[in-house]
Amino acid sequence: MLKLIQNEWMKLWHKKGTWAMVAMLILVILVPGAITKYYEVKSTDEGSWQEVEQQAIQTNKEMLASEELTEEDKAYFEEQIALSEYRLANDAPSQKESSLASFMSFTSNMLTLVTLFTVITAASIVSSEFSTGTIKMLLTRPMSRAKVLTSKLLTTFLFGLFLYAVNVVVSAIVGLLLFGIGTGVELEMVNGQFVEKAVWNDLAYHYLLSGGDFVMSTLFAFLVGSVFRSSSLAIGLTMFLSFTGGMIVMFLSRYDIVKYVWLTHSDLTQYERGGSMIADITMPFSLTVLAVYAILFLIISYTTFMKRDVTA
Q: Which domain holds residue 298?
């Protein structure tokens, strides 16, 4: 099995597209970092942090004076005023927007690009063997079809995890070189009191929850690529469901069946924002539904591959 995975890994890196995906991922981290640094250097006339907080208090009070605000808006502006007053009273400046933590929080949004590149790999790693005819040579080896397919699946996930690592490492290096660790503290209100926000814990949690869409999109693309032997169909269909998944869930939200559709649960970051968009759905339930669909996707992929006539 290890030799099969090594062989798949080597074949993957022999493709120019693989290097292009890694280069593009690094580029979309470097460019925003350079732009942010450029505007940070130009913005030298903002004044001290105390002046910024005092101006924020004045602005929020003006907004609070509006008669058209909802109760939620009023509560928000009141909290912002209280936050600024707390910082001034306790000499607790906030971190600059251009800091290592804030930059890595921004680049964590690039995980959608990581998912896209992994989906492209998953969609083509099986279908390309059929389109080029190399599948016949591959299956003549003294290895079962199950092991061959498993090696391709594991290679796909290894590549996706590698891209995850590239995102984290490059973001950390660029953020550290351009902005430094940063000073100040991030605060949030908990039970009516301001406490220091666990920025790094929140960031790690975000990376973990982003794995839901990453895993399910990869397995679905692998399924379509294995069944239909078309990488373009697999990529197109997976991306279509990724971009329209929210609308599909909203359309089905009036029916109970929405609780059992995998698109409802694949974006686990919704729990980071306070809970699922569908009532009475919890994290354990979402993980259970995703596990069932993941097993179903794998069963279909393996069953189809095991029974397929390679001469067809």
A: 2-37+98-307
